[in-house]
Structure formats: C-alpha cells, structure tokens
Amino acid sequence: MLAVFADEATLRHALAFEAGLARAEAAEGLIGAPEAEAIAKLCAGIVIDPAELAGEAALAGTLAIPLVARLRAALPDAPAKVVHKGATSQDVADTVLALQIRAAFNLLDADLKRTTAALAMLAGRHATTPAIGRTLLQDALPISFGLRIAQWQAGIAEAASRLARDVETGATLQFGGAAGTRSGLDGKAGAVASRLAAQLDLPDAAPWQNRRGGIAGIATALAILIGALGKMARDVSLLAQNGIGEAREPAIAGRGGSSAMAHKRNPTGCQVALSAALRAPGLVRRHPRRAAGRAGARPRRLAGGRPGTRRPVPARRRRGRGDGDGRGRAGDRRIRDRPQPRGGGRRH
After folding, report:
1. Adjacent-strand bridge partners of 300
2. Is residue 70 within 8 Å of 46, Cβ to Cβ?
3. Which of 59, 129, 212, 332 has the most CB atoms within 10 Å of its CB?
4. Residues 6+ apart with CB under 8 A from 178
C-alpha cells in the first residue's frame, strides 16, 4: 500500500497522464502524431528525482508546473509547444489520485474477499456452538457463536460492497482544462477525454474538480469499512480477556507476547484494527472541507515522512498537535498536490 501512494507512483501516473493526453489529442487531429510520440517517448524514459521535483512543486504550488516545465525543456520546439495542451494542474492531480485509489482498492479487495470467505466458513462451523449474548457488556441470553461471526461477516461484506461502488463511480478521469470548460480543443474535448480515460483504464466522466462528493464518498465508505473491522476487533479483544476466554487471535510465533510476562497472549491484530477505527472518523470529518477547498494548496510527501523515507513522523512531533496534521516537521515536502487530512481520532 505504501508503494501505491509513494512519490514514485505519483510521478509515474502523472507522466502517464501527459503521454496519454498527447496520444489522445493526436488521434483527434489536434496535434501531430510525431509530436505525440515524442512526448510519450520522453514520458516513458525521463528520469526525475522525486525529491527535487517535490521541492520545485512546493515552490510552484502544484506538481504539474515543474513537471511540464521539465518535459518542455527536454523536447524539441514542436512537441514542447503542445505538451499538456488543454489540461490544467488539477486534472493531473485528481487523475493521479483516481489511479492510486483504484490500485489501493484492488489490494484491499483481495484482503476483504479472503476475510469474508474465512468468516463465512467459521460462521458455518460454529452455527450450533453455544455462546452468551451480551448487552452493555453484561450477560443476556444464549446465542450461537456462529451467529456472532455471521454478523461480523455481514457488516464487513456490506461495507466492502459500498466501497467498491463508490470507487467505481468516484475514482474517474478528471479532465476539465483551465476553468473546467474543456476549452481550446476545437470541440473535440469529449472525444479526447474518452480516449485518455481508455488509455489510463479509468471511467470517463464530466469534469468534477469542484465537486468533491465522489472523493468524500470513497473516504466515508472506507471509514465505514474500517468501523466494521473495528467492531469485530473490539468483540474479539473483549472475548479474549482471561476472565472470559471465548475467543483468541491465532497463535503466531513472535506475535502478541510480552517481554516480561511469558503467560500473556495479547490481541495485537485487534489493536491495529482498533487504532485505525479510532482515527478514521476524524480523518473523514476533515476530508470534505479540505477537498471542497483549494485542492492544490500544498504539495507534500506521502505518509508524513521525512524526504527520502517512508517512515511516518510520529504524531507527537507533527507541529506539536496531538491529533497530527500529517504534514511532518517544517521543511518537509511531499510531491502530492492534495492536502493531507488531519487525524481527528482520540489518542489513548
């Protein structure tokens, strides 16, 4: 997942956008085929240091400005004049985001299918296993342990389906041009967009740069999914208490032990899921406000890490804020055009 959102992936997708745009415009007769192939060839072979580009993007305010400048400087006059024709910086930023969202979802989807299949199997295996149903953590009435697992499975499966739908409708091509009107393309902008979307393997869509509901919907669906996983994690961690002992995480060498107390078997997998579930609502709460504003306001590096690393900067060191604003220390820069959501979950 880190690789999906790494600076290298961001740069690769941005170059794919520029190459695909040139070829789409050549196919519609807006630029010459030799110029389009020169642009595409350069995009496939140019070597750019992401850290250097991040510094330039921070000064320019957007990734596309220094990237296109580098392409123009490396091209002969004719293709240099038509590179990025009819596009704007936000088109690059949002299309890159859509590509990364889809790549990330593919990773999640594989894990989710494995999780829901395993839970369905366990629910069937324990369909007649007696258990205590509880309300407000107090014993209530007998239930089937399989029913409890089936509810976990249903919640995760429903949330996964919601996320899949929102990714399909929300992670689409953004191509609107300077003011969202697709001007300057001789009335062929729709055809160019269709060809560009096909080359990038994205659904075509009307310009949505000032309508962030699709992206916010994806974020919300992801938070619901994290919450469903967190519900299961909370139940398992409670059932794993010594005084209850109705469920435990799998015994895996090196996981869940204690350096001082050999008898302990800590639910560390649950701990990870619960930490995510605590943070997700705050991240989603902040996202629509950020997304509705100036999306290209501040380039950044990914995951809050220092330049040249993928290790996140601890929240306690992020500008002194306990909830973490994801920007790292002063001077840290990221290649991204999109601002980092600020974590709003409580810390424990």
Report:
1. 336
2. yes
3. 212
4. 88, 184
Indicate the pLDDT class of residue 309, thresholds 50, 70 and 90.
very low
Residue 280, number of CB atoms within 10 A of its CB? 23
How is residue 42 written in tokens? Answer: 């350069």
226-261 pLDDT, tens digit per residue, is: 999 999 999 999 999 988 989 988 877 767 666 667
For 85-118, give one letter per residue: b (16+ CB within 10 A) or e: bbbbbbbbbbbbbbbbbbbbbeebeeebeebbee
pLDDT tens, position by position, 175-213: 999 999 999 999 999 999 999 999 999 999 999 999 999
pLDDT at 150 over 90: yes
- Token pair of 327, please? 């920007």
Three-state DSSP at 273 gives helix
For the record, the structure tokens of 148 come out as 């409890």
Tokens of 174: 């953004």
CA distance 140 to 133: 5
pTM: 0.80
Return the closest-CA partner of residue 178 out of 40, 109, 84.
84
In single-letter form, the type of residue at position 277 comes to A
The per-residue DSSP string of 223-249 comes to HHHHHHHHHHHHHHHHHTSTTT-S---
- For residues 224 and 159, is the Cβ–Cβ distance under 8 A? yes
- In angstroms, the Cα distances linking 258 to 233, 240, 249, 264 are 20, 16, 15, 6
CB distance 72 to 83 below 8 Å = yes
Count the neighbouring beta carbons within 10 Å of the beta carbon of residue 230: 19
